[in-house]
Design brief:
Blueprint (H helix, E strand, L loop, with lengths): L4 E6 L3 H13 L3 E7 L2 H10 L4 E5 L7 H9 L6 E6 L6 H8 L3 E4 L4 H12 L23 H11 L4 H8 L3 H15 L4 H10 L3
Parallel strand pairs: 1-2, 1-3, 3-4, 4-5
Helix pairs in contact: 6-8, 6-9, 7-8
Length: about 200
């Protein structure tokens, strides 16, 4: 991914949107595409223009995190999502990971650190706070979304990206999006490793 990363900021609070927008404008790694005050505005922008990363308040109105991510994945070139929220609920990072987010920050994260997370996510990595994953990753499928579990199963049967797209009625771009997240969550690098993982864990 070359050049400034296209980014959108979504937050119900006007002051927060303004503050984050000014931060993004000052950082040469990014190009601010738009801001949104609710889930509908975020989805509309992602359908109209390519976006690399979305910085999203976890409590964005109109849509829950899981449905928001699912709807965004149905756009032509879905962005990677970084959620942020107040640190009151220690389960939120796990919930964001399970929903399919690429990153999570608490709302008291320093501004420069939040942009570092956004830049890292734009490069295809995942960034989450240190957390004890043993309680919810007893089975590898616990950290995969339903769609990701479907895709890793289909990979094991030898389907191509195009075949997956046709079968699931989504775009090839969306298939690639799911694959990137799937590889990152499981610590894999490619399709061959995903297939080997599938059979080694007897998924």
């Amino acid at each position: 991914m070359s050049g400034p990363h296209a980014i959108i900021v979504a937050d119900p609070n006007a002051l927060m949107r303004q503050s984050l927008s000014e931060m993004v404008d000052r950082d040469k790694r990014f190009r601010l595409i738009a801001t949104a005050k609710n889930g509908d505005g975020l989805l509309e922008t992602c359908r109209r223009v390519p976006v690399d990363v979305a910085l999203v308040n976890w409590h964005l109105p109109n849509v829950g995190a899981q449905r928001l991510i699912q709807n965004i994945r149905d756009t032509c070139e879905p962005p990677r999502i970084v959620f942020y929220a107040a640190p009151a609920d220690p389960q939120l990072p796990q919930s964001a990971l399970a929903a399919g987010a690429a990153g999570f920050c608490t709302a008291d994260t320093q501004p420069e650190d939040l942009l570092e997370v956004a830049a890292t996510v734009a490069l295809g990595r995942m960034v989450f706070p240190i957390m004890d994953v043993r309680a919810f990753v007893k089975d590898p499928r616990d950290i995969l979304t339903a769609r990701e579990n479907t895709i890793i199963s289909a990979l094991a049967s030898g389907r191509t990206n195009e075949e997956l797209a046709n079968e699931l009625k989504i775009s090839v771009y969306t298939v690639k999006f799911h694959l990137r997240n799937l590889y990152a969550k499981l610590g894999l690098k490619n399709r061959s490793q995903a297939i080997a993982f599938f059979y080694s864990r007897k998924l």
